[in-house]
Write a structure and sequence with these properties.
The protein has 268 residues and is mostly helical. Helices cover 81% and strands 0% of the residues. Helix 4 (94-109) crosses helix 6 (132-156) and helix 7 (160-168) packs across helix 8. The chain is globular and about 70 Å long.
Amino acid sequence: MEKKRKTRFLSGGYLILVLLFIYLPILYVMLFSFNDSKSMVKFSGFSLRWYESMFSNRDMLESIKYTIIIAVVATAVSTVIGTVAAIGLSKARKIIRTVVLEINNLPVLNPDIVTAIGLMLLFLSLKIRRSVVTLTLAHITFCIPYVILSILPKLRQLDDNVAEAAMDLGATPFKALTRVILPQIYPAIFSGALIAFSMSFDDFVISYFTAGMDVQNISMYVYSMKRFNPAVNALSALIVVAVTVILVLANLIPALKDRKNKKEEQET
């Protein structure tokens, strides 16, 4: 019994250390986003000056705009393509599915620098000028594999007879897809979309090689700074808050919906 308590205590202590290692730097950045001075060591007083500086910095706002637009477009397109591809692969022959999945895994396993140079050379060989369009296409390209890998495990758990039964009862293939298959794999689709958004939002290497001179995202903007600007702390704090709100809503809304459905079933 004492040995179990000791093991549990050590496991709990290790978990706390890991969580502190992960989240303490984030809390540190958020705290110093309200610092009155430029120091990242000494907190001299509470101030919103760096938030004001961020909203008055035109270049930073421009990079935020491009980052959000590209991330949203890349997420939407890659989610649709990845979902359709995953459903098609789940119905394909084993040999075809194996080959396509091996190809799909290449961008995931490859170092970002290899993918970045490959995409850059592709655009140059096709004589496509690097711009926001090439940057968006590059983001869509490396986001699709993550969406496919997120959805396929859920598809393997589905009963194929359900969709076939729906079509036997008169549903068209499209209705069977939208009314039967998609509602069952919705959590996996949402997870894939979140992964795609996060991958696009914080990408630097691929963006650096595929973007034009007239566009840059947040990571490229930070890299191009000649010296550290504390306004970046304010930007980081806002990003953390936004991501936290999205994650809370993503988990809270389905839970409330399930609770409402269960309540309606009990009433009936």
